[in-house]
Amino acid sequence: MTNIVVLTGAGISAESGLETFRAEDGLWAKHRVEDVATPEGFARDPRLVVDFYNARRAQAAQAQPNPGHMALTDVQNLPGVALSVITQNVDDLHSRAGTDGVIHMHGSLSGALCGACTHRWPAPMVMQPGAPCPKCHSPAARPDIVWFGEMPYEMERIYELLAQADIFAAIGTSGNVYPAAGFVAEANRQGATTIEFNLERSAVGGQFDEQRLGPASVTLTAWLEELRR
Ligand code: OAD
Ligand code: ZN
Q1: Overall pTM > 0.90
Q2: Are 50 and 143 in contact (CB under 8 A)?
Q3: Is 106 an annotated catalytic residue?
Q4: What is the average pLDDT across 10-22?
């Protein structure tokens, strides 16, 4: 059995029409991170933050998985391969492409989280700031998104997966945000072969054994064919 662990970022959803964060015309060129992606920003202006994620949710719902997402599902279904997908993306395109067991380390647009009691429930398409928690009734509903300064989800499980990986691949992520940007170093330390799939070398690109440059739809489809042999 070949254990493959992939980490995906906004680049894998770019060909589905979803904006990345750090492109010249990306999300962080139009919105301030401190305003829309921190607990402090939410405390200051919950309406602004909830609207930002409402817009992301609406866009993701219109988008379709692309051949890059599909190729990962096909890799997962190959005999002799165990594929785990860890994503920093908050869209649901991996699961809509049929990939199982996706770990959403930065949370998900489809979830609502109570800031008071940590209860989680499915988010409505349009969340309202100050909506009540169905469990504790505090007016503390927020998107179930991991903001800067908060701890990403499932870190223990992720490090277990990295420890068992034969191959670690980072796909469409710029290597700017930790802890995810540190996974390649951990995978190297644990003896995995490490591959980067990106349009260009990322901020941590020098740490990978191999670079595969190009659109993920093309490079992942080629990788699938190679693993199939
Ligand atoms: P970024 O926007 O930082 O990086 C996207 C990466 O995808 C870049 O390195 C691009 O070169 C690459 N890329 C773009 N199109 C591609 C394509 N068709 N095929 C392959 N690669 C492509 O997005 P992330 O690295 O995902 O966190 O950002 C990480 C985190 O920072 C996000 O989860 C988000 C953000 O701030 C939070 O909001 C907490
Ligand atoms: Zn609650």
Answers
A1: yes
A2: yes
A3: yes
A4: 98
